[in-house]
Design goal:
By secondary structure, this protein is mainly alpha-helical. It has helices spanning about 1-10, 15-30, 35-45, 50-65, 75-100, 110-120, 125-140, 170-175, 180-190, 195-215, 220-225, 230-240, 250-260, 270-280, 290-300; strands at about 105-110, 150. The radius of gyration is 20 Å and the shape is globular. The protein starts with a helix and ends with a helix.
Length: about 300
């Protein structure tokens, strides 16, 4: 079925949402719900379909070309299609790298536009933000060097908004710039305050991947970002004094991140002791899987 469905997608236009939406979802799940051997073949089929990749390019570009909806919580058919497009491309990025699959058509994306889609949210639905962050994580994990993806570092239209000329740090972080990193971090922190479960999971995962990327590029920058005082205020906001509040997955993962990068001004011995005390008092068998996994990672980091 991959052949006819992917060929059908390639004949569509981005506005053919009724047909594209289920088709892209089918392609996405065909990649994820299959055996490793079949997965490798599925990736090869999709990446050899030039018309499909050209269609995906047009779909992703609609993210910043269309007007934001009047109701931010409402997921329109156009937004749903964008979600499917971003998630499918994120998966193709990861699996193309895993299997070293030949690519017959590259996707070209302006990094400034991708970041602005998160930084300047403009009433975007939660699921669309999560989908774009999933793509950004995939690109960061591959240092923006996938053979499927061509990243344009700075948009000419956005050049005038850059507060300062490129520095040595900017060169080390290429294609990211320092001001983009800090804008993205602040935006992710603001999204965490919304306390939406799906959004929180995506935000923390994106923060983890971003700091890992920075650490490879420039350790000083990564440590500087991880030790920003605003992180501590963010933790207090997330904790909100509730019982067993330290045993929230996003809090545990943030604590683990700050421990990993030795941000002693963000997490102290007092917080570590509090988490250990709450974990000792909790019924571990009754903890949700996400909490249990996050606690396991935290204890290993300690």
């Amino acid at each position: 079925l991959l052949f006819p469905v992917s060929n059908l997608c390639g004949r569509c236009r981005p506005r053919d949402t009724d047909l594209l939406q289920p088709s892209l979802n089918f392609l996405y799940w065909s990649l994820h719900q299959t055996t490793p051997c079949s997965q490798q073949r599925a990736v090869a089929v999709l990446l050899s379909n030039v018309s499909l990749l050209e269609l995906l390019q047009k779909v992703l570009e609609c993210t910043w070309l269309r007007s934001p909806p009047s109701q931010p919580a409402y997921l329109s058919s156009e937004d749903a299609l964008l979600c499917s497009g971003w998630l499918l491309v994120a998966s193709l990025l990861l699996y193309q790298h895993r299997y070293n699959t030949e690519v017959h058509q590259t996707l070209s994306l302006d990094l400034t536009e991708v970041l602005n889609a998160i930084i300047f949210r403009k009433k975007k639905p939660v699921l669309l933000l999560v989908s774009i962050m999933q793509f950004l994580r995939a690109a960061l994990q591959q240092n923006f060097s996938s053979s499927l993806l061509v990243i344009i570092g700075q948009s000419a239209a956005q050049g005038s908004t850059q507060p300062q000329p490129p520095s040595l740090q900017d060169a080390a972080l290429h294609p990211l710039a320092m001001w983009q990193v800090f804008s993205l971090v602040v935006s992710l922190q603001n999204l965490l305050v919304h306390k939406d479960v799906l959004l929180s999971q995506a935000v923390v995962a994106c923060l983890e991947t971003l700091v890992e990327y920075l650490y490879v590029k420039n350790q000083d920058v990564a440590l500087h970002v991880a030790s920003q005082p605003w992180h501590r205020f963010l933790l207090f906001t997330l904790l909100n004094g509730g019982q067993k509040s330290f045993l929230q997955p996003e809090v545990l993962r943030l604590m683990t991140l700050f421990l990993r990068y030795q941000s002693s001004n963000i997490i102290s011995q007092k917080e570590i002791s509090q988490i250990l005390r709450e974990a000792a008092e909790a019924n571990l068998a009754e903890l949700p899987e996400t909490t249990s996994h996050a606690l396991h990672l935290f204890l290993r980091q300690v």
